[in-house]
Write a structure and sequence with these properties.
Number of helices: 15
Number of domains: 3
Strand content: 5-15%
Order of helices and strands: HHHHEHEHHEHEHEHEHEHHHH
CATH superfamily of the largest domain: P-loop containing nucleotide triphosphate hydrolases
Number of strands: 7
Largest sheet: 7 strands, parallel
Structural class: alpha/beta
CATH topology of the largest domain: Rossmann fold
Strand order of the largest sheet: 3-2-4-1-5-6-7
Radius of gyration: 27 Å
Length: 369
């Protein structure tokens, strides 16, 4: 055969048969038939809500995906689901946990989660993972780091990407909290990406804010921002085990002294400093007991309800800001003008302030029509 050079007459005694045509590795007809038979029907908001109320984790996860989606159709359906779930919410403990990278947040949450679920409570962990500024992708590895908790039938772990927008993730996380509470989860833990701007967003949606710190990592008091410490209702020095026990005790003493210098909290609560070993599960029960003590105190003096009210108002204005920003950048005419003005700013033909003013003026004119 001409397609086999081995069959050339100069190769005496050598002959290669052409064989049969290589079939496709995948049967296209079978795949199409499978997709046709298994095509997911579009569910109504009522169907989602009914399933969520029954604790259906599969449809809860699908509803969370709708909330996280930027697809307008998905967003519309998600808002219907959230609105119908609102009357079923408000009865959970919402706990925010943050700390510097390496402080052992995932191990700590898994240990704390074991204590919480052992008391008959249902726990949802919403882990906010950082998105790459270049690729916009996220690792979303908390389920692998909390392997034992992931297998617990009374626990639900859902990592969510920041997608480069703190305002967006704050709004979506609030909506996911609503869905989880409607599904019967009476304890919600929100884990942040670490010490940074996301802490302010998380603080605005939780009842108790816990700061996890690591001893022996240099000057402890320089290792954390004062603003984060002022937000903390409870500070826990983790990894108090082995040769690190004395360092953890020293770090805790330094933090107690530092906290005395801060103004009295509006809640009337004096932030406590504890040590623990999440790896050895020591001190975890004391942490949970202190969290409950804080919640009891703030409920008794009315701060708990005041904080919930402040959070709802904060969420309203944050959502307005986020929606205005999104609407502005999605406007096609603004997108075209932005490309032109961006080049002028880069070429120093106009200032960034002048370009911004022009874009906003044009945007408001377009919306006034």
């Amino acid at each position: 055969m001409s397609n086999h050079p081995e069959n050339d007459p100069k190769y005496i005694g050598l002959h290669v048969n052409s064989g049969i045509e290589t079939p496709d590795s995948v049967n296209s007809e079978a795949v199409n038939e499978f997709l046709k038979r298994n095509k997911r029907a579009e569910l109504s908001a009522e169907t989602y809500v009914a399933a969520i109320r029954k604790g259906d984790i599969t449809l809860l996860s699908q509803a969370v995906t709708l909330v996280e989606s930027n697809n307008p159709t998905h967003q519309k359906l998600a808002q219907e689901i959230v609105l119908q779930c609102l009357p079923l919410t408000g009865g959970s403990i919402r706990l925010g946990i943050t700390g510097m990278p390496g402080a052992g947040k995932s191990t700590f949450i898994e240990a704390l989660g074991k204590t919480i679920t052992s008391q008959g409570r249902k726990l949802a962990v919403l882990a906010i993972d950082p998105s790459s500024e270049k690729t916009k992708g996220s690792i979303l590895g908390d389920k692998t780091r909390m392997e034992n908790l992931s297998a617990n039938p009374n626990a639900y772990i859902r990592p969510s990407p920041t997608s480069g927008s703190l305002g967006g993730v704050a709004r979506k996380t609030r909506e996911i909290i609503t869905l989880c509470e409607a599904a019967g989860f009476n304890t919600i833990i929100i884990e942040t990406v670490g010490v940074g701007q996301s802490e302010t967003a998380v603080h605005s949606m939780v009842d108790c804010f816990l700061l996890l710190q690591l001893a022996g990592a240099g000057d402890e008091l320089q290792g954390i921002k004062r603003g984060i410490m002022e937000m903390a209702d409870l500070l826990v020095v983790n990894k108090s085990d082995g040769d690190n026990i004395d360092k953890a005790k020293l770090a805790a003493a330094q933090y107690r002294n530092a906290l005395h210098l801060f103004p009295v909290s509006e809640s009337g609560w004096n932030p406590k400093v504890l040590t623990c070993s999440a790896l050895e599960h020591r001190g975890i029960a004391e942490v949970w007991t202190t969290i409950l003590e804080y919640l009891n105190d703030t409920t008794a003096n009315g701060f708990f309800q005041q904080r919930r009210g402040d959070q709802v108002r904060y969420a309203l204005y944050e959502t307005i800001n986020e929606m205005l920003k999104s609407n502005f950048y999605q406007n096609q005419e603004i997108q075209q003008q932005l490309t032109t003005l961006e080049k002028q700013v880069v070429d120093n033909n106009t200032s960034s302030l002048a370009a911004a003013n022009q874009l906003l003026e044009n945007y408001f004119k377009l919306n006034a029509k």
